[in-house]
Design goal:
16 helices; 7-stranded mixed sheet; Polyamine Oxidase, Chain A, domain 2; 5-stranded parallel sheet; 3 domains; alpha+beta
């Protein structure tokens, strides 16, 4: 990977959009008093907010309920049943080149992003063995999408002829946030059926996008699907392959960032950050000139500003317990926020290696309950060390939208059986392997993006001066999604608070906010008028 690609999320797309931060003071502590902020949550959004504030002179207290940083991209130590220490996390995450603002955050402790490693391909396979690949796909739209479609075994030239071009126009000419006005009332499955998109291609291509939100297409907003298609295909020329962390997330990403944020006398970072892990915020009260944050240790922290960067359940809980925060309308929007179905990550430590030509990541379509297989030992250093020592491999199986809630032991055991059956079907060499260790994580803390949700989703700014929201479930009218949405809202929360205090904001970048083709944009406008 060339150095220009790996440098601070600068990107290669000449049409990427820069969103300049407001002008202001580079150090808000120049008068001898530094403003103080509390950031609730140390996931990507909270860490971005803390970084943005500290670099302009805020004193920042970060309060995190888990014992580790990174939120849903956190990593921690685990022990197998035999006592062996291993690394563990919540599963595979792809760091796309389009994630400019997440890369901006990671570059603070890794300027060349050397702790990210490029995967050259991530094939997709369906239940009939049909395989799609991103290897060699051109970066520039629309040729990237055209090449992918023409190479796909599930999409034929006759399928292109039978597409309803007028109905499909919004997909090819996304404009954010207008796409939500056009399509948020529809679910993704209905939209794809209405445009006559072939069923097999839906399973193999678009279902991968919806599953990234931990929902089936029938439960996902068509607008979110179209926005994803824009971000990764027709809105960006950064390419379709991605990076992964070279080691467990704590080692590669968050411990180095925490060292940067807590180290004294770092040029360009005049403020300080203190982390409080294993602590849950209970409530927030408005006090004279600021806030008082109470946690479950009995301690209270006074602050000039607060960023709520928790998951959906945490946000609802804290706001419900803090009656002085916000208006009735805003509080009702918070209460309405919902989570996606629960998902399972099943990790296996095997005494046998997988075949050397197996991809690090394999996405699956229409192979319920399996959504992907990751060969963790092929790209993550600690897993690779374990595999080398034991002559085996570390394999991860994902089941997204596996249940409405975490199932009872019986159904959970049945899911394990079905996941293993899929693994043995796709990678037969693992069937004879002895399982040295295994663990299953069940979680239900990802935000829901159902039809109709967008209009009521709360944004970064709140009715309370000095209180901001951040996270991947928070509304932002920019073309960002998943981890990049979390990072972007964190930076935006910091910028909004910096503006209140006269501090300089941070520049951000995104893919273009609308489709790159004027012809397709015109067709989309006409189609919206006719429908």
């Amino acid at each position: 990977m060339t150095s220009d690609v790996r440098t601070a999320g600068l990107g290669r797309d000449r049409r990427r959009v820069r969103h300049p931060g407001a002008a202001g003071l580079p150090d808000l502590g120049q008068d001898g008093r530094r403003p103080r902020a509390v950031v609730v949550g140390a996931g990507i959004a909270g860490l971005a907010a803390a970084t943005g504030l500290a670099e302009r002179g805020f004193e920042v207290e970060v309060i995190e309920g888990e014992q580790y940083l990174g939120g849903r991209v956190g990593g921690w130590a685990h022990r197998l049943d035999d006592g062996s220490p291993v690394a563990m996390n919540r599963g595979f995450h792809a760091f796309f080149a389009q994630y400019y603002n997440l890369r901006k955050l990671l570059s603070r402790s890794d300027p060349r992003l050397d702790r990210l490693h490029r995967l050259e391909d991530y094939p997709l396979i369906d239940g009939r063995g049909r395989l799609d690949t991103f290897r060699g796909i051109p970066r520039t739209p629309p040729w990237n999408a055209i090449a992918f479609a023409l190479r796909s075994p599930t999409f034929r030239l006759r399928d292109l002829i039978h597409l309803d071009a007028r109905a499909a126009a919004p997909l090819a000419a996304v404009s954010v946030p207008r796409i939500y006005e056009q399509l948020d009332h529809l679910d993704a499955e209905t939209f794809l059926r209405d445009i006559n998109f072939p069923e097999a291609a839906r399973h193999l291509a678009f279902e991968v996008f919806s599953r990234s939100f931990f929902v089936a297409p029938k439960d996902m907003s068509a607008a979110e699907l179209a926005a994803m298609f824009h971000i990764y295909f027709l809105g960006s020329s950064e390419g379709l392959v991605f990076d992964v962390a070279e080691d467990n997330f704590d080692v590669s990403l968050w411990n180095p960032l925490a060292e940067y944020l807590t180290a004294p006398h770092v040029p360009g970072r005049p403020g300080r950050v203190r982390f409080h892990t294993g602590v849950r915020v209970q409530r927030i009260d408005i006090a004279s000139g600021g806030f008082v944050v109470a946690d479950d240790t009995g301690a209270t922290t006074s602050a000039d500003a607060v960023v709520l960067a928790t998951d959906i359940a945490g946000l609802r809980r804290i706001v419900a317990a803090s009656p002085t925060l916000g208006t009735a309308e805003w509080r009702s929007r918070i209460a309405e926020l919902a989570t996606a179905p629960s998902f399972a990550v099943h990790r296996l430590w095997l005494d046998t290696p997988v075949r050397a030509d197996r991809p690090s990541f394999l996405g699956t379509g229409n192979m319920d309950p399996l959504d992907n297989i990751s060969i963790v030992s092929s790209y993550e250093r600690q897993a690779a060390d374990w595999a080398r020592t034991h002559g085996g491999s570390v394999v991860e199986l994902h089941a997204y939208a596996a249940a409405d809630e975490q199932p009872a032991p019986g159904p959970a055991a049945e899911l394990r059986r079905r996941l293993l059956a899929r693994l043995y079907e796709l990678y037969p060499e693992t069937a004879a392997a002895r399982i040295v260790g295994e663990t299953t994580l069940w979680r239900q803390d990802c935000p829901r993006f159902a039809p109709g949700d967008f209009a009521r989703r709360p944004g970064v700014r709140t009715p309370v001066p000095g209180l901001m929201l951040a996270g991947d479930g928070i509304r932002v009218d920019l073309p960002v999604a998943l981890m990049e949405r979390a990072a972007t809202t964190g930076w935006l929360a910091a910028n909004a608070l910096l503006e209140r205090h006269g501090g300089a904001g941070h520049d951000l970048q995104t893919v273009p906010g609308r489709g790159r083709s004027a012809v397709l944009r015109t067709l989309a406008t006409l189609g919206g008028q006719d429908r």
